[in-house]
Here is the input.
Amino acid sequence: MWGPSMKPIPQQKGFSLIEVLLVLTIVSVIFGMAMVYLQQRTASMRADKAVLDMQQILNAALSYYVANGRWPTDFNPPIELDSTSKLVVEKYLPVAPRSSWVSTVGGNRYYVQSSPSTFYVGVAVQGSTGVARPWILPTAQTIAGRLPLGFTTFRHDDFTTLSSCSSNSTICFAVGGVNVPGQNLNQADAVRYANLYHHGACVPVPKCPIDPQTGTQMTPEIMVAPTQVKGVNDVDTGNPENVYPISSFQAYSTGSGTDTDPPACIGGSPVPCGSGSDPIGTTYWRVCLQVVTERGEVTSTPANAWGQYATLLAITRCKINNEAAGSPFTVYSN
Here is the structure.
């Protein structure tokens, strides 16, 4: 019995050990899932960045080829894309991008390589300790799967040879590539440049594309034709000009296409080629006109009156190496 002065002891509520362990387990699972998601999201963002960077590099290489008729790298083993690369120096890329993975091969640079028909860009996927990681191969495959002509290889010295990575690879390269722009090949043998010149002028040699089958440059050629010829031989400022009927005339060019200052016209003196606006390394042909009148062959220079009156049409193109020529005499010749 309860006495009149006795009160019930209040019951205190709390968590049992099982309940505490259950909560800790749930929190641990949620935290683990969050960490896994964060890691996956970080890896996905790093892969996204690599894909975008590599796509821009491939686009820049295509633009370079369209403008120059060749890839921005020679046919050598893969090299790092840095601030000295042609794509950066010639402003096809604003900067040399860096990847999100630091490799033992060459830091966090992208690698580029070209063959006669294909330009490659690769990125090294590697753990920070340089040991095999289970995520290296899937990550590289994910990147390669989002690139044109994508594949994976463990070789950093040659992207043209397929050497697939394995699940225990310590480093794996994700590689993408692009072929020669069809526009360049389709229009290679079309007119590349045409303009009117005076006797003795310099005509720039076109930069021809590389033949994907042979790896050699297509042959630049020039056609020269007279558009205006006057039978002026002697110029006397005090008397009317002495005009003689033209017996024959012939347009031709000098130089092999590799000269910065091609040879002078027959009987003439060389005039320096190039201007301040021409790119460094531009080579030239020199276009000339030989005229024979009743008095004899006209002696001319670009500066005298007759040379100023003669006008030549110069047309250049690129000759495909296996092009059918027909008879030995061709229109495009020098």
User: Anything to note?
Assistant: The chain has two domains: 43-182, 187-319. The helical segments are 17-68, 86-89, 136-145, 182-186, 305-309. The chain has a mean pLDDT of 78. The first strand starts at residue 79 and ends at 80.
